[in-house]
Design brief:
The complex is a heterodimer of chains A (298) and B (277).
Chain A: H1 2-32, H2 38-43, H3 61-81, H4 86-114, H5 125-156, H6 163-190, H7 220-253, H8 260-288
Helix pairs in contact in A: 1-5, 1-6, 1-7, 3-4, 3-5, 3-6, 4-5, 5-6, 6-7, 7-8
Chain B: H1 16-36, H2 40-59, H3 66-70, H4 81-98, H5 104-133, H6 168-204, H7 208-238, H8 253-276
Helix pairs in contact in B: 1-2, 1-8, 2-6, 2-7, 2-8, 4-5, 4-6, 4-7, 5-6, 6-7, 6-8, 7-8
Classes of the chains: A mainly alpha (298), B mainly alpha (277).
């Protein structure tokens, strides 16, 4: 009984850490403009719309976070093997991983922006100096939370995978959940704030992103501030639910009916999310209504 | 032929000769494995190949809209095919590896449910953001009616787009793809783990208890690597975006099955050679 209570406590802690990681990951990727919406940041100068938005999408979020989390976890694992205290080892590992992220962000911004020179897009040194440190700070939060939850899963819950491999797996899952949930909010709602609310961006408007703020030109810090409220929070809830429910069903129901208990609970949870998704879909159709009258086929 | 002159449908055409060559290559790799490691190695390679095929097939179900979906210009999840499939499948592998001691069937199904659960949560949150964050209902651009619910789609597409969000059939496709991917990744891991646990003590001259961490780490790394190989291979077959099982691109799956089988067999053969030679 005591072991189950301990397991539930660790599970709750990993869920909380995953929520923080998901939220920080999405905000970092939006400030750095790393997800799919960056296609518009890259396209805008080619359409004649020069801007001051950061631009570092030379890799998708999942492989990038897979690399950084595996690096942080691997270095932390090495420090722990050298008898360094676990907390200090994780902090040191994540700090070193964040330096790699900083190098990645700097070279990516310079490389991607330089490729747009023929369209007149300048490299803004002040954008580089003011934004990079902010993305690094958010990346540190995301990597630290992910490596810490991996350490808890490995050392406290006894998962067989070594820490670096868990870092790689959960880093990729973090990037996948964060980009899937957060990208539309940054791509449609923020970049195309001048388009109609409640509708997709017409393909003909591609590249015409919003470039001006209340005072002066819009920068990526504004984008992070805006998207964090819904996109970042939703990404955090998404990754937090994934980590928490996956571990929770295993800790509580793994011993029931030789492992089938965890499977049945997992299927039940999938059904619950299916019903919730269908409710959201039907609610939207009824509440918002169609954009145009349905055509009657004679 | 130039890219401009190429037929738009050319990407979906099946090439029987290429598929026959793929099957022959698969048989050659299996024969080589039988020659090098006739018993356990060959059985492991068959399991790895089945796991790779499950991943390749499952990736076709995952609704991925890429960059257009990020602007609400096309339905699907706004990220890459391989990346999303890998995220779901590896989350499944995490659960499957935890249940490895409970046998092949339980662990494989556990891995599948883990992948399906990850996709169910992600798909629901995607629709949550579209509906409550952006005020946009789901609409498919490929079918007039949702094949499962029968909901009409055309009137819910906003002007100048191909649709947006995740219609119910795409949600079901995502969960199915996550299940198949998680089960496939776990199957590869279990096959390699069994082989390494049996072979490494003799190869390294160490007691079995000492090689278990090495076997787990090596099998896990190979499983992750083979997962990415199959997911990326399938992404090339899909060429960009896919809405799910109702998308016309889904019909390309036989080609990906053959390619995944050959690629998995080749990668698995290399993984087996580590302990067979």
């Amino acid at each position: 009984m005591e072991q189950i209570v301990f397991g539930i406590g660790i599970t709750a802690l990993t869920g909380a850490l995953a929520t923080i990681a998901g939220s920080a990951e999405d905000t970092e990727s939006n400030i750095g403009s790393q997800g799919d919406p960056n296609s518009q940041v890259q396209l805008a100068p080619q359409m004649g719309f020069l801007h001051r938005i950061f631009n570092k999408a030379i890799a998708g979020e999942p492989p990038a976070y897979g690399l950084w989390c595996a690096l942080g976890a691997g270095l932390a694992w090495a420090f722990m093997a050298m008898q360094v205290n676990a907390v200090l080892a994780i902090v040191l590992g994540c700090v070193l991983a964040v330096f790699v992220q900083g190098v990645y962000a700097t070279t990516a911004y310079l490389g991607r922006t330089a490729s747009l020179a023929k369209f007149g897009q300048p490299v803004f040194v002040d954008v580089l100096t003011s934004m990079t440190s902010v993305t690094m700070a958010h990346a540190f939060i995301a990597i630290f939370a992910t490596v810490t939850l991996c350490h808890l899963i490995n050392s406290a819950l006894g998962h067989p995978f070594p820490l670096p491999l868990l870092g790689l797996i959960w880093g990729i899952a973090l990037g996948a959940a964060g980009s899937a949930t957060g990208n539309p909010y940054y791509g449609k709602e923020r970049q195309y704030q001048n388009q109609k609310y409640g509708a997709g961006v017409p393909i003909s408007a591609s590249g015409n992103i919003v470039r001006y703020a209340e005072a002066g030109e819009r920068n990526s810090l504004d984008n992070g501030f805006f998207t964090h409220k819904i996109g970042g929070s939703a990404s955090g809830v998404c990754f937090g639910l994934i980590v928490f429910l996956e571990i929770w069903r295993t800790i509580l129901f793994e011993k029931v009916s030789a492992g089938w208990g965890a499977i049945v609970v997992g299927i039940l949870m999938i059904l619950i999310f299916t019903v919730a998704d269908r409710y959201i879909e039907v609610w939207a159709r009824k509440t918002y209504g169609p954009y145009a009258e349905a055509k009657v086929v004679s | 032929m130039s890219a401009v002159a190429a037929k738009p449908q050319a990407g979906g055409a099946m090439n029987p000769t290429a598929m026959a060559v793929g099957v022959v290559m698969l048989l050659i790799i299996l024969a080589l494995c039988w020659y090098v490691s006739p018993g356990m190695g060959l059985m492991a390679l068959v399991g790895i190949t089945i796991g790779g095929v499950l991943i390749g097939f499952g990736t076709h179900f995952v609704p991925v809209g890429g960059a257009p979906a990020a602007m609400g210009q096309a339905p699907g999840i706004a990220t890459g095919v391989a990346m999303l499939a890998a995220g779901a499948g590896l989350a499944g592998l995490f659960g499957g590896a935890w249940a490895a001691e409970q046998g092949l069937v339980v662990a494989t199904v556990t891995g599948g449910v883990g992948g399906g659960l990850m996709m169910a949560i992600t798909c629901m949150m995607v629709n949550f953001v579209y509906v409550f964050g952006m005020g946009i209902p789901s609409a498919s651009g490929k079918v007039a009616k949702d094949p499962i619910t029968g909901d009409t789609q055309a009137e819910f597409k906003s002007q100048g787009t191909e649709g947006h969000g995740l219609p119910f059939v795409s949600f079901v496709g995502g969960v199915t793809g996550g299940f198949l991917g998680g089960a496939g990744g776990t199957l590869i891991y279990l096959q390699l783990l069994g082989l390494y646990e049996a072979s490494l003590p003799a190869v390294m001259g160490l007691p079995p208890a000492q090689v278990i961490p090495i076997a787990v780490a090596a099998a896990g790394m190979f499983a992750v690597g083979m997962f990415l190989v199959n997911a990326v291979l399938t992404a090339y077959n899909i060429t960009g975006t896919i809405e799910g099982p109702h998308d016309p691109k889904f019909k390309r799956w036989p080609r990906a099955i053959v390619a995944s089988a050959v690629a998995s067999a080749l990668c698995g053969f290399v993984a087996i050679l580590i302990v067979a030679l």
